[in-house]
Amino acid sequence: MLVGKDFPLKEQWTGLKSVILAVRTHVNKAGKSVTERRFFISSLGRDGRAAARYVRKHWGIENSLHWILDMTFREDESQIEDRILGENLSWIRRFTVTLAKAHPAKMSIVGKRRAAAWSFDFLMQLLQCAAK
Predict the structure, then answer these.
(1) Rounded to whole angstroms, how far apart are CA atoms 57 and 63?
(2) pTM (2 decimals)?
(3) Counting CB atoms within 10 angstroms of each CB, which of 40, 47, 49, 130 has the fewest?
(4) DSSP for the chain?
(5) Which long-range contacts (CB under 8 A, 24 or more apart) does 93-101 make?
């Protein structure tokens, strides 16, 4: 949908030209079909193919991070029920992945995580990478 001058929030986003609706249908764990609708604000004009590429690229990044969090931290197996605690731990996990990716050592994220747990010096190296 192209955003016209009468769009109420247009002034809040510099360069806003369109709002993209992405619809995804999948089968959940219970076997039910679920349709999700997500909206994206965009500086793209009327170019549906470019919009689709950017949405897929966005979800590729999201899916990649989710896979890392699940494999490295077993995040999908978490049984934390408190919403605020869960969000805080999720933030810490994502921050940890960012630190591990920033460190130049040729180790996996799991390896860097373990090395940081075993070595205070390595932990300090990880934290210093974030400060740069």
Answers:
(1) 10
(2) 0.50
(3) 49
(4) -B--TT-TTGGGSTT--EEEEEEEEEE-TTS-EEEEEEEEEES--S-HHHHHHHHHHHHHHHHHHHHHHHHHH-GGG-----HHHHHHHHHHHHHHHHHHHHS-SSS-HHHHHHHHHH-HHHHHHHHHHHH-
(5) 93/69, 94/65, 94/69, 97/65, 97/68, 97/69, 97/72, 98/130, 99/126, 99/127, 99/129, 99/130, 100/126
Asked if residue 71 is part of any domain, the answer here is: no
Domain range holding 5? Answer: 1-46
Q: How far apart are CA 103 and CA 127, in angstroms?
A: 9
Identify whether 41 is part of a domain: yes
Tell me the mean pLDDT in the region 92-116.
Answer: 86
Q: What is the pLDDT of residue 71?
A: 75
Query: Are the C-beta atoms of 66 and 90 separated by less than 8 Å?
Result: no
Residue 52 lies in a domain: no
Tokens found for residue 101: 């990716």
Closest CA to 51 of 19, 3, 98: 19
